[in-house]
């Protein structure tokens, strides 16, 4: 494993219609990284409860892994699990590979791949995608790609935003100061560009839309895990799991 991108990696596809993730991760400071990695706070520790209920997977993939917070965590907690992190940005994939090599974590691997096509050549017992679907216009194709990456008998764990979150973002855009934004720092044009697909309702999802895409009804993650304190995390930004 190296810190460079080899010839087998796919071409960089960073969803430039909303945000250029390749440039973002290359230049992001600590605050930017934390903001852009919601799985750190909302998924990482909850996965232990999911694994308790469904069993520790032999293989695990995090699609849209960013700096690999969840992938590294699962790899460390479960050294017998083969872990893959996929991200659209070659810059963060290279950084994650270098970190894995430096820390000598041999069961975690990182590759470049982007939704909606994904185009990976293996399946996993558990596939996680959190904080990523908001930036993908063709939700149905992305959902099918994610579900195709799950082994029969495995599970897809999916985080998405619904229309409630779209309304929340619109309220921020309409009244940033009233929602705690610094008027000197808030860039309305950049905010609108980053969240354009959500604001336009193109990347918001429902249980019905997920079912229509993959033919399986999603189930609430809170069937197997405790509700978080942040109410929005289970109203406007649901987490679901789909058996296969």
UniProtKB/TrEMBL annotation:
GO molecular function per UniProt: methyltransferase activity
GO biological process: methylation
InterPro entries in the record: Methyltranfer_dom (IPR025714), SAM-binding_MTase (IPR053173), SAM-dependent_MTases_sf (IPR029063)
Alphabetical UniProt keywords: Methyltransferase, Transferase
Domain of life: Archaea
Keyword Oxidoreductase: no
Record keyword Transferase present: yes
Coiled coil feature spans: none
Stretches assigned to the Methyltransferase domain: 61-162
SUPFAM superfamilies, sorted: S-adenosyl-L-methionine-dependent methyltransferases (SSF53335)
Gene3D superfamilies: Vaccinia Virus protein VP39
Transmembrane segments annotated in the record for this chain: none
Protein name, as recorded: Class I SAM-dependent methyltransferase
């Amino acid at each position: 494993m190296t810190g460079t991108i080899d010839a087998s990696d796919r071409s960089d596809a960073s969803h430039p219609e909303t945000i250029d993730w390749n440039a973002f991760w290359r230049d992001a400071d600590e605050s930017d990284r934390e903001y852009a990695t919601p799985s750190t706070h909302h998924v990482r520790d909850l996965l232990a409860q999911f694994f308790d209920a469904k069993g520790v997977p032999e293989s695990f993939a995090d699609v849209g892994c960013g700096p690999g917070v969840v992938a590294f965590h699962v790899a460390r907690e479960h050294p017998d699990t083969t872990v893959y992190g996929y991200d659209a940005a070659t810059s963060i994939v290279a950084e994650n590979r270098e970190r894995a090599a430096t820390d000598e974590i041999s069961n975690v691997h990182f590759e470049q791949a982007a939704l909606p096509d994904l185009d990976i050549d293996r399946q996993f017992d558990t596939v996680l995608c959190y904080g990523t679907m908001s930036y993908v216009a063709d939700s149905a194709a992305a959902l099918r790609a994610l579900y195709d990456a799950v082994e029969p008998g495995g599970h897809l764990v999916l985080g998405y935003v619904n229309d409630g979150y779209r309304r929340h973002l619109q309220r921020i855009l309409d009244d940033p100061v009233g929602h705690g934004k610094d008027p000197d720092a808030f860039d309305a044009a950049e905010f609108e560009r980053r969240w354009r697909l959500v604001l336009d309702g193109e990347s918001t999802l429902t249980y019905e839309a997920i079912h229509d895409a993959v033919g399986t009804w999603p189930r609430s993650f809170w069937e197997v895990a405790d509700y978080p304190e942040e109410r929005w995390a289970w109203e406007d930004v649901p987490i679901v799991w789909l058996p296969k």
